């Protein structure tokens, strides 16, 4: 148990270290970018890395606190626990300390309607306001981002075609959807903002002071500068130059919002029309939110059983290989039929309306029979199965009770298996129309000592960025 906890701590720490390296790479990308789209993608990566770091650190802190609480509770529970054998109830299974299975939660077809003014959309009047937007989606420690979309008054909806799948969700999950926006009218080239500020201030400071100020604002420059009277000027030097994304809207989706269909949900909007990153949101988001609990997709129990023939003699038992999966107990002739995709001999429903009971123990028998009752067309139909030992009976009963518990927690997600389309591999985000990706642009430029802009003169730093970029494109979450 301790080794498992230590391994999990180590895994989370490795994730934190990885995201820190990615964050450092994103910062260097921002400093190297000379084109707007590249800078926007790098800033998006920086925000995503920071969000993941915070999520992992929170998860690590929760784990540490849970470990302390477990150590305190263990001393008390050791005194209270007794080594009693498991006793099955004929009407209900034990629910003490039971945990529901995990599952996949997928969000896709995200559409956010816009509400432009008539003069802007229909008459095409006014300044063309354009923003770069993307969604950040989080369930627990899992965080993903959508592609970046350019939005202006020619669009009536913000559309994200990504399918985001969370693989370790609990039925009590909270899926937070955050919409980030960045105005694209600013200048995004490396160092452009401080240089632009320096140019505006130099005329009022005078030629001599202006030259000193511009030198201080250049990369590598530093230290305070003074005006003619000797007073120190405190100039804003951003830690990470480049575009900045701002939270524009958000919402939180839970199990209650899961439906195997396209639905509309309310959005909480941040900011106002005075913000540069503002977009006229309608106040809602449309999406498809689906879930697949593992009890619906994986074999929860399997093994050989004997099934009593309906309407047959007491000796009319048939040996089958049973598989408990989803809302059915599938009965095959033999185990090999599963891989051969042979149709099962029969299928017994196991759903929220099913009643299962273990028969009274027969002192002359090594096994107990299990009765599975369902209603078909208003009539009760009971299937009776038995195992080869009482231990097997106990395991099957435990599997049935766990299945019922999972269904009670995942609710409508266990009525039918919802379809989830697995996301296609993400394409490299930082691309340009003529020059290809920033990675290839930098890599091809490294040997030329006189290049400016994207080329960094320090070969060691360039090699580090090249490695980070390669990891950025090859690794996936």
TrEMBL record:
InterPro entries: AHD (IPR012966), Cytokinesis/Rho-signaling (IPR051364), HR1_rho-bd (IPR011072), PH-like_dom_sf (IPR011993), PH_domain (IPR001849). It comes from the Eukaryota. Keywords: Coiled coil. Gene3D superfamilies: Pleckstrin-homology domain (PH domain)/Phosphotyrosine-binding domain (PTB). Residues 1-69 form the REM-1 domain. SMART domains: Hr1, PH. One of its GO terms (cellular component) is actomyosin contractile ring. Residues 298-405 form the PH domain. The keyword Coiled coil applies. PROSITE patterns: PH_DOMAIN, REM_1. The keyword Hydrolase does not apply. GO terms for biological process: actomyosin contractile ring assembly; mitotic cytokinesis; septin ring organization; signal transduction. This is Rhotekin.
């Amino acid at each position: 148990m301790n080794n498992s906890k230590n391994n999990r701590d180590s895994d989370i720490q490795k994730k934190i270290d990885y995201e820190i390296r990615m964050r450092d790479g994103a910062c260097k990308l921002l400093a190297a970018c000379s084109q707007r789209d590249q800078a926007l993608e790098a800033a998006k990566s920086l925000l995503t890395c920071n969000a993941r770091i915070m999520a992992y650190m929170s998860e690590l802190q929760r784990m540490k606190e849970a470990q302390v609480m477990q150590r305190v509770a263990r001393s008390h529970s050791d005194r209270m626990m007794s080594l009693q054998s498991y006793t099955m109830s004929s009407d209900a299974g034990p629910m003490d300390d039971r945990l529901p299975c995990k599952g996949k939660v997928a969000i896709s077809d995200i559409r956010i309607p816009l509400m432009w003014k008539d003069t802007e959309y229909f008459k095409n009047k006014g300044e063309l306001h354009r923003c770069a937007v993307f969604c950040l989606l989080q369930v627990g420690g899992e965080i993903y981002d959508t592609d970046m979309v350019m939005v202006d008054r020619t669009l009536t909806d913000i559309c994200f075609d990504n399918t985001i799948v969370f693989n370790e969700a609990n039925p009590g999950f909270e899926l937070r959807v955050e919409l980030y926006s960045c105005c694209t009218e600013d200048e995004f080239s490396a160092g452009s903002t401080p240089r632009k500020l320096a140019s505006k201030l130099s005329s009022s400071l005078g030629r001599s002071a202006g030259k000193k100020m511009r030198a201080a604002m250049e990369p590598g420059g530093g230290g305070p500068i003074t005006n003619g009277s000797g007073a120190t000027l405190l100039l804003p030097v951003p830690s990470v130059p480049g575009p900045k994304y701002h939270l524009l809207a958000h919402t939180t989706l839970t199990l209650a919002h899961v439906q195997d269909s396209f639905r509309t949900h309310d959005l909480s909007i941040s900011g106002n029309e005075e913000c540069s990153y503002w977009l006229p949101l309608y106040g809602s988001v449309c999406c498809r939110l689906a879930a697949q609990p593992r009890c619906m997709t994986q074999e929860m129990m399997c093994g050989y059983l004997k099934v009593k023939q309906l309407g047959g003699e007491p000796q009319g038992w048939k040996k089958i290989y049973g598989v408990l999966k989803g809302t059915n107990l599938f009965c095959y002739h033999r185990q090999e039929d599963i891989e051969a995709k042979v149709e099962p001999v029969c299928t017994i429903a196991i759903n929220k309306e099913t009643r299962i009971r273990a028969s009274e123990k027969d002192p002359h028998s090594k096994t107990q029979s299990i009765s599975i009752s369902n209603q078909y067309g208003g009539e009760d139909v009971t299937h009776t199965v038995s195992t080869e030992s009482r231990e097997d009976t106990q395991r099957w009963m435990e599997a049935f009770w766990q299945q019922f518990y999972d269904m009670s927690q995942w609710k409508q997600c266990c009525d039918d298996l919802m379809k989830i389309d697995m996301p296609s591999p993400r394409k490299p985000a930082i691309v340009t129309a003529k020059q290809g990706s920033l990675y290839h642009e930098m890599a091809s430029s490294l040997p030329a000592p006189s290049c400016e802009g994207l080329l960094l003169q320090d070969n060691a730093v360039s090699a580090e960025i090249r490695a980070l970029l390669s990891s950025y494109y090859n690794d996936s979450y």
